[in-house]
Amino acid sequence: MLFFILSTIGKFLTKDEERDRTIMARIKARDAAALTELYDHYHRLLFGLILTILKKREEAEDTLQEVFTKIWEKAEQFDLERGTVYTWIVSLTRNKSIDRLCSKVYKEQKKVIQVAYFNGMTQSEISEEYNIPLGTVKTRMRDGMIKLRELLAKGVEL
């Protein structure tokens, strides 16, 4: 549903694809004003997408900043033959948001396992100490143990 909405909005926002291509060419040439123009045109849409994925405003604001930094750094990788500016930045935004979400979940799993192992805390004690619902503690513990088992099976050094 979200991507249907983004597609519909994208059709409206990309009525002037030539303008977006010109802006990307200027960004490739390191014109900072062009990045500002792109930001002004797309930041609300991208922020909404990020917020939908991450659910936290502060995380979404940080990620939006990272997205535009990435656009600046990776502008030369944009290929007109492969799609529109809109689809490129939406894909970049979605991927960055998911990467941030996965990284955060991994750290939460790591913390729960560390506390249980090194501090000898039960799941109930972890729930109380860190104000996390018991079901969430159990899920993080289980997911973390599955990930740990996968890494050990691959012979990856931790």
Question: Helices, strands, pairings?
Answer:
Layout: H1 2-13, H2 17-28, H3 32-54, H4 57-74, H5 85-119, H6 123-130, H7 134-154
Helix pairs in contact: 1-3, 2-3, 3-4, 3-5, 4-5, 5-7, 6-7
Structure characterization notes:
The chain has 158 residues and is mainly α. It has 7 helices and no strands. Helix 1 runs antiparallel to helix 3 and helix 2 crosses helix 3. The longest helix has 35 residues. The mean pLDDT is 87.
Spell the H/E element sequence: HHHHHHH
Secondary structure: helix percent: over 70%
Number of helical segments with 4 or more residues: 7
Structural class: mainly alpha
The overall average pLDDT, rounded, is: 87
Cα-to-Cα separation, first versus last residue: 39 Å
The geometry reads as elongated
Instruction: Count all strands and give the number.
Output: 0
- Calculate Rg over CA atoms: 20 Å
Which runs of at least 5 residues are low in confidence (pLDDT < 50)?
none
Q: Main β-sheet, in a few words?
A: none
Q: What fraction strand?
A: under 5%
